[in-house]
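Sequence in, structure out. First:
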Amino acid sequence: MGFLFSKPSYDPRRDIPDLTGKVILVTGANAGIGLQTSEQLAIHGAKVYLACRTESKAKAAIAGIEDRTPSLKGQSRLMWLPLDLSSMRSSKKAAEEFLSKEKRLDILINNAGRLADDYLLSPEGVELSVAVNHLGHFVLTTALLPLLKETARRPDADVRIIVVSSSVYASPGRTTFGTLEDFNDPQSEPGKKNVFSSRFKRYGTTKFLNVLFTNELQRRLDEEGVPITAISLHPGGVATEGAVALDVPWYFVVFLKLFAKTALEGAYTSLFAATNAQVAAERDKYKGKYIVPVGKIAGPSTEAAKDAGSARTLWETSEKVVTDITGGSA
């Protein structure tokens, strides 16, 4: 349990290299871990796209970053990309907009996530946490893969795809995903969809999906001989506004407020995975792995999360669901 709430020695001011010339996309970047991740990347020279739903929140986040670091003003290094991960169509549109603007993508950080919340279906008919935490990112990532692969072929490229998961991936409510019905399983007894235990099971399931997706993505990249590094991670216990505002037992909120990391500290493992030179130097060691604060390889550690057949099935089912619902390919 030490890695959940321990205070790290990692220091982004010292440990992030110069990122000048790199283009990075961060989902859920207007608040919490995503905001802190984006801010540090921009400070170190990258052009960062803050991919999120609301223009006003995105622009307020950008203004806040520029106020804290005035040298970023007028540099066009912080950009808003409209993205609603609850919609596969929106995710595809966001990727298309990005592709129309940029000729390279060095780092994709799939950070956004819906926490342990009530059971709802998205407008496209998918359980909302699965839609946001998995399928939206699946569509975005696969649509951006051609550009990521093209960037990876450039001299001295170091392309990475980072997926923010959670330690609860090890305790999913469901581990088989062959149909849309599996995605939409409330994982509860009748009338108890929205009790905390059911909400937490569904959340754990989506974090399990994050790890399986990363595994299969890395396998496919390796099979093609594409030098892109995919990493999933646990940021640690973080007292973000979203986590504190959840309808959870009171002791959970107290524990977060007393012992959890700040949002900046919560961003450290994402920043390590996305930028640390050690990852590039020891790529075979890190690719396809699950890491915990800060930069420690910790898995995947369960048999279910390591199962290659399940990872392939998840990918194939995701492709089918995307095609059936949107009428287009993933």
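Second:
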Amino acid sequence: MNVGFEIQERELTAEEIKELQKEVRRLAQEKNAIILAHYYQRPEVQDIADFVGDSLELSRKAANTDADIIVFCGVRFMCETAKILSPQKKVLHPNPESGCPMADMVTAEQVRKLREEHPDAEFVAYINTTADVKAEVDICVTSANAPKIIKKLEAKKIVFLPDQALGQWVAKQVPEKEFIIWKGFCPPHFEFTAREVMKLKEKYPDAKVAVHPECHPKVIELADFVGSTSQIIKYATSVDAKRVIVITEVGLKYTLMKKNPNKEYIFPESMNYCGTVYCCTMKGITLPKVYETIKNEINEVELPEDIIERARRPIERMLELS
């Protein structure tokens, strides 16, 4: 395969994938680039990454890298976070159209209006928000650290945005505080139903159930474990059970199988690359797009300096408290 020609968006053969992966790694070394990928990325993309992680882990890597270029295989808000934490770096996004519907459910203007309505509250934003929104809040959190961080805040009233499911889950763990919760949601996670999970529990009565906190509260109630992507990995691969029902994005199955192939990881049947319950924006990043991006150094993420400065403070505060 001649990787010098323009790669078409088509299904590649196993040999083409292997050769293209080698070329991407060669370019990364040549250009002093680091490739970061979220767990929900396609397997062939995860395999060429220097580091695969969840939002918090990737934020830390972006903040501490010595690379000149960051190629971020994730959705837009993740790439913005990398740019905010490493403004001197060139941050490249293999698919600029890969946004996050949840992040787009709240705007900076709406946050400013909430500030007027709740001047005594501390504003907490899930990391799944745009740079403009981050610039308006007091601190950011992830699904891995939200309860821990919010317990440490002095304010008694918390405005939590944009994910209502995560907000309600955190509020139950921090009952001493008053929560004002924005009504945003993650479309893929919110599509899981309690009925669907109950059917799986009936079919596999010996299985444990691990659920991401972006899921509907009725789904969370059925879980043996609730946690972030990285926390689910740790639980599912080490729990004393041969089967684990996993209620999150199907991309995680690849990592679970690599970490502990001796267990059976059960995802809802509708959750596959041809079904409806998966993150289509995450899957919008393909190996050919990563290759073209790093080869030509295109799709650079750019943010206004004032947004970078204001948005950095709540992210750094999160990293300090977590």
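Remark: The chain has three domains: 14-99+282-302, 103-185+306-321, 192-266.
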